[in-house]
Structure formats: C-alpha cells, structure tokens
Write a structure and sequence with these properties.
With 96 residues, the protein is an all-alpha fold. It is 43% helix and 0% strand.
Length: 96
C-alpha cells in the first residue's frame, strides 16, 4: 500500500475511519485512483443561477394572498347573514 493512503482497516482502534490521506506523488495518486480510493466527482457548475427557490416562494406568497382574500370575503358574507342583513352584502366567494 502506498505511503500516503490510509486504509480503513488501519484505523479500527481509534478515531474516525479515513479512506485517503495526503497523496504525495503522481504514482501514488494513480495507484489510489486505480484502487478506487481518492476519486471525487467532477464539479459541474450551472450555466445560469438557480431561481427555483425564489419562484417557489413567490408562488407560495401568491397562494397565501389568495387565501386571505377568499377568507375575508367569506367572513363578510357570513357576517351579512349573522347581522340579519344590516351590513354590506358581499357575494359568496367562488373558492368556498
């Protein structure tokens, strides 16, 4: 085993298991990659910034506003009948 690679079995006694340590030479690096140790996924950056969370929050706020609107209209509609027609008549909201 190359000097720069620490095997999991070597660290049984104490501390967390470490798969790779510092690889000092190209030959050690190639040996580690061939053994399947020390490989990393290649970083792929997005071409454009991710706006999905921003759009999601705007849609949630829009639904919240719609619910407040329907709730207020329903409250006024019920209040008209509770007050026996002495308040402003509002038609029943379509969402209820």
């Amino acid at each position: 085993m190359a000097a720069g690679i620490v095997n999991i079995e070597d660290k049984r006694a104490g501390g967390p298991a470490v798969i790779t340590d510092v690889l000092h030479s190209d030959a050690q690096r190639r040996a580690a990659v061939a053994a399947g140790k020390g490989t990393r996924k290649r970083l792929i950056r997005r071409a454009a910034p991710d706006r999905s969370q921003k759009i999601r929050h705007w849609v949630q706020w829009a639904f919240f506003a719609l619910n407040v609107w329907i709730g207020a209209q329903f409250y006024l509609w019920v209040r008209y009948f509770v007050q026996h027609g002495h308040t402003l008549y509002v038609s029943r909201p379509a969402g209820v």
